[in-house]
Design goal:
Layout lengths: L1 E7 L1 H7 L4 H13 L4 E4 L5 E4 L6 H12 L3 H6 E8 L9 E4 H8 L1 H4 L2
Length: about 110
C-alpha cells in the first residue's frame, strides 16, 4: 500500500495573497482523483491520499510526485510531504519517506523557499 500526506502552509498562502488556496487544493486533488485514491482530511489541515487497491495507485503516487515536484506554487507553500510505503506487503509496516526534505536538498524550486 502507498499513501501520501500533503500539508500546505495555508496561513502563509492567505497572507501572501498570490494564489487561491482552494485552487491549489483542487490542483493537488486532481492528481489523485484520476486513480480513485482515497482522500482523508487530517485534523491539522493536511490531506492523506491513500492508494485504492482496485486501481493502479502505484502509478498515481509516482505521477503525482513527479508533477508536484515541478510546481513552483507547491514548492513555495508545501509544509509537509510524506510518502508512506510498504512495498505492497501488507504484513510490513508503512515506511515514511520525507519527500519535502528530499526535494529541499536537491530541487532548486524547493531550496529557494
Amino acid at each position: 500500500m502507498m499513501k501520501m500526506l500533503i500539508k500546505l502552509d495555508e496561513e502563509r498562502v492567505r497572507r501572501d495573497g498570490k494564489y487561491d488556496l482552494a485552487d491549489m487544493w483542487r490542483k493537488i486533488d486532481e492528481q489523485f482523483e484520476k486513480y480513485n485514491c482515497i482522500k482523508e482530511v487530517q485534523p491539522d489541515g493536511g490531506v492523506l491520499y491513500s492508494g485504492n487497491p482496485d486501481y493502479d495507485y502505484y502509478t498515481c503516487m509516482g505521477l503525482s510526485y513527479l508533477s508536484l515536484r515541478k510546481q513552483q506554487w507547491f514548492a513555495r507553500y508545501c509544509s509537509e510531504w510524506i510518502m508512506y510505503d510498504n512495498d505492497d506487503d501488507e504484513e510490513l509496516p508503512l515506511q515514511d519517506i520525507d519527500l519535502l526534505t528530499k526535494e529541499r536538498s536537491k530541487n532548486p524550486l524547493f531550496a529557494a523557499v
